[in-house]
């Protein structure tokens, strides 16, 4: 997995928290959130504490509010700082209509808060391996959930470059 991470992150430091991730920070975040973090997520943020990946799209089998065949992410949240999964700034997720009782937002989408990617612990419990879901809170009174991957590692390995979809959009 280490070789995979070498070419995972974009060079930009936007959305990157300024300090390297320590085991103490991970323990603190897990206690604050009340959930065990996936090992693949921990390995990823130890390479860079959040940020923008090179590949930002994830193919879907069902249409979402974003597109007929994919979703796009803006970032992957790290720990601490303004954009961390455990920051006070991100605690308003329930106010926006996200089902925070099942987990927490791990990636933002470029829709100004109308949809996001969450880790969903509803099937595995707070100590298990969560699945990854896309949650849309804009087009319905109830959140619309699309299952993306059975776990975080599958999700990050399934991200593809957005140019694949830009070419398709230009054909329209």
What report would you give on this structure?
With 172 residues, this protein is an alpha+beta fold. 24% of the residues lie in helices and 17% in strands. The strands form two sheets. Strands 3-4-5-6 form a four-stranded antiparallel β-sheet. It has one domain: SMI1/KNR4-like. A hairpin with a 6-residue loop joins strand 3 and strand 4 (115-120). The N and C termini lie far apart (37 Å).
User: What number of structural domains do the residues give?
Assistant: 1
The termini sit apart by 37 Å
Strand order of the largest sheet: 3-4-5-6
The proportion of residues in beta strands is 15-25%
SSE string, helices as H and strands as E:
HHHEEEEEEHH
Radius of gyration: 15 Å
CATH topology: SMI1/KNR4-like
What's a concise summary of this model?
24% of the residues lie in helices and 17% in strands.
Q: Mind sketching the topology for me?
A:
Layout: H1 2-6, H2 23-33, H3 39-47, E1 57-59, E2 70-72, E3 103-108, E4 115-120, E5 131-136, E6 144-149, H4 152-158, H5 163-171
Features:
172 residues, alpha+beta, SMI1/KNR4-like, four-stranded antiparallel beta sheet, two-stranded antiparallel ribbon, 5 helices, 6 strands, 17% strand, globular
């Amino acid at each position: 997995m280490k070789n995979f991470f070498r070419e995972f992150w974009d060079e930009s430091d936007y959305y990157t928290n300024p300090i390297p991730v320590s085991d103490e920070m991970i323990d603190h975040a897990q206690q604050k959130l009340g959930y065990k973090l996936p090992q693949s997520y921990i390995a990823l943020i130890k390479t860079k504490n959040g940020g923008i990946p090179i590949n930002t799209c994830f193919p879907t089998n069902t249409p979402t509010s974003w597109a007929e065949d994919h979703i796009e992410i803006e970032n992957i949240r790290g720990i601490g700082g303004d954009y961390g999964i455990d920051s006070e700034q991100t605690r308003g997720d329930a106010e926006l209509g996200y089902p925070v009782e099942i987990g927490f937002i791990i990636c933002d989408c470029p829709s100004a808060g109308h949809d996001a990617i969450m880790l969903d612990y509803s099937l595995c419990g707070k100590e298990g391996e969560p699945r990854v879901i896309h949650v849309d809170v804009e087009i319905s009174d109830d959140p619309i959930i699309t299952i993306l991957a059975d776990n975080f590692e599958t999700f990050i390995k399934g991200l593809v470059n957005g140019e694949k979809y830009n070419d398709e959009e230009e054909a329209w």
